[in-house]
Description:
It is a single chain. This protein has 3 helices and 5 strands, in the order αβββαβαβ. The protein is an alpha+beta fold. It has one domain: Gcn5-related N-acetyltransferase (GNAT) (Aminopeptidase). The protein has a 5-stranded mixed β-sheet, with helices on one face. It is globular and about 40 Å long. The N terminus is likely disordered.
Amino acid sequence: MAAQTAAARHTGTTTYDISDAGQKVGFSIIQIYEPGPDGKLAQIQYFRIKKDMRGCGLGRKCYIEMESMLRNEGVDMIELMPLDSTCGFWEKMGYNIKNGAMLKKDLKVVK
Length: 111
């Protein structure tokens, strides 16, 4: 799928600041691609929460909100390439971990 993503027409980049109690605690960068074989694609380039803010549910809350916004924008598929240290988080978010490969989440199936 990575080769198909590279060939797909990039339609925009969205940056989300992640805040808690008015303080920036992280950010995410998402590339959006025009519909292809898997529909409209969002590729998470970065999703970071400050280390001292991890483990309290903030990342989960922010990801769920971000996924909902992407779904509302008509995104059909999300993909990402996780760091080994973040695989546990992405498994909890509904992704299947496959030896550091590109992970996909089909929003048409997962509600």
